[in-house]
Structure formats: C-alpha cells, structure tokens
Amino acid sequence: MTTRVDTAVPWWHDAPLDRVVRLSGAAMRDLAESVDPLPSDAPAALFFTLSNGSASEMVDAVVGAIEQAALDLVPFLLPGDVGDRSSLAHDAARTRARQWASTSEHFGPYLAHLAGASTSGRPLRVDSFARETRAAGAVRVIADVHGRERAVLVVDVPADSDPAAVATAAEWLCSTGTGVWLTGAGAPAVDRFSVLTVRTPSTPDDVDTIVDRFRPLSYPPVEGRPHAASAAEILLDRVLSTREWAAGRRHNRSVRPTTLSRPFTLDVSWVDEKVAIEIDGHEHRARAQFADDRSRDNLLQTHGWIVLRFTNEDVLADHESVMTMIEQALHRRRSKGTPT
C-alpha cells in the first residue's frame, strides 16, 4: 500500500474519483469544514456516518440517505411550485424531468420518479428501481445541482465495524460511479485499499460543521439556495419569496469580514444592507458553540452588520414574527443607509 502527501494543492485534488481509498491525516469534521462552502474545483462532497451491519445493510443505508438528499435537492434542478400538490403539478414535474433527462446524462424514468415524489410529498418507493439505478441516479442529481460532473462519498467508519463488510459495501458503491473515500477510527482496518495522506486545517471543537448539523448524510449547501436538509431554511425562503421587501437576499453565501479572518457561510444575507440571518439548531445551545456564534456575530457587527439569530423552532412555529423582525432591520438600514 502506498501513501502520498502533496501539500501544494487542496487535499481533494489527489484523491481518485474512480476507486476506493483510505484517507489518513485529517478527521471527517476537518474535511467537511474545508469544503464548506464547496470550492469551485472540488467534486460534490457527501459525508456519511456509517453504522454497523452487513455489507448489504450498509449499502441500503447509504443509498437511502443519498436518495433522500436527491429528493430534497431535485426542486433546485427542476424548479416549480413546491407548494402545489395537485395531480397537474405532479404530471408537469414528471414532464419537466423527462425533458431535462433527454438533453443530459440523467435516466429519465428515475428523474421523473424523483420529481413526482418531490411534488406529491409522498415517500419514495424503494422497490421501483434497482439499487444500482437509485444510487447512480441520486448521485447524478446531487452533482448536477452543485454544478459538478462528479461526486464523492466520504465515509466515516466506526472503530468496531467489520472491515470485510465495509470493504464490500465501499466497492459496491464505487461501482455505481462514485468515488468512495474511507476515514475514521475504523478505516485503518480496511486494508484492502491504498492509503492517501491528506492535510487540511484542524477544525476547533466549537465550530459547527455540516457533519455536526446533518446526519447520517451531510453535504455543503448549494450556493445561493437554502440548505435542502433544513426545514427551517426551506420555509424561510418560501415565505421570503412572497415579500417584496426581501428582494436582494442571498442564501448560504461565504463572507470574510477581514483578510485575516476565516471565511464562513451566512444562512441568509443582504450584502448591500449588511443584514445577516442565522438559523440555529439545537447544537447551537451548547456552551462552546454559543461562544463561537457570539465571536462570529461580534466580528460581523464590528464591520457594520446587523445579525439576527433565530432558532429552527422560531421559524417553523412563528415565521410571521421572524418576518417582522427581518423587515424592520432591512427598513432601518435602507432608510438610514448602510454603514461602510
């Protein structure tokens, strides 16, 4: 087995997209943080936290999670009225999917299947297509939505996993056209594959990464869109879309207040007005995360931003109160001018 290190280029440049490798030198949280926001030269990155089981059970869990992600993301690929559950909207979504597939590499029947389920709100039937079709089709949707030709699956392997089962599952997943990169405490025992040593900055414990927010499958948000796995972000976007005063907003855009500060992503922002909205899940209540949030807020406020924080529950249970506070902040900035 060989080990290579190249610190001159980002870590993902050396990792192959056509086979299974073991990554050494960085934890999954570090890898996830380094591709959020997703760099322009990186493949669409998916991070999966594996659970113990047979190879078939592992594959089923991964494919199910990837397919759910594709179901969440397909409205970004085939936009339509997500609130319309009528049979006409369902048929129109399936038609758009077939038309899109006819000029792309998507498999039309499967894409129509996803589009129809997304519009109707009904769960996907896992027996409608072969597992190979579901895996390949779902990954293709995820990559396409991110504007990438390929996707990669980074798998966190628990220490007590069966190495033979992990290896079999990884090889099967890779055979569907997705690069599979193994990491975690159990990865060294899966010695069937070559090792790639990578380097990326360590992520402090008090930084909330995508793998902390979303499990078992995590992925960076699509730039300019609410995170598809966040019900609160999706609802906030839907309501803001009905308000004229909300024009000019950006979702999940990276900002760097100073040349020395690390970049971070704002859930919703109005750059001209310097108003930022952050939506916090339960993990933000932890003391360390709370401190990190306050540090970010202070840095933004020092550079003229208004930062409004809401919990998921605020948005989901009382979005009109949230709308009122956002509108007031924007009105204040627009009437008085934005500080520089």
Automatic annotation (TrEMBL):
Pfam families: DUF559
Keyword Methyltransferase among UniProt keywords: no
Swiss-Prot/TrEMBL keywords: Endonuclease, Hydrolase, Nuclease
Ranges of residues in domain DUF559: 264-330
A GO molecular function held by the record: endonuclease activity
Top-level taxon: Bacteria
Record's protein name: Very-short-patch-repair endonuclease
Top-level taxonomy: Bacteria, Bacillati, Actinomycetota, Actinomycetes, Mycobacteriales
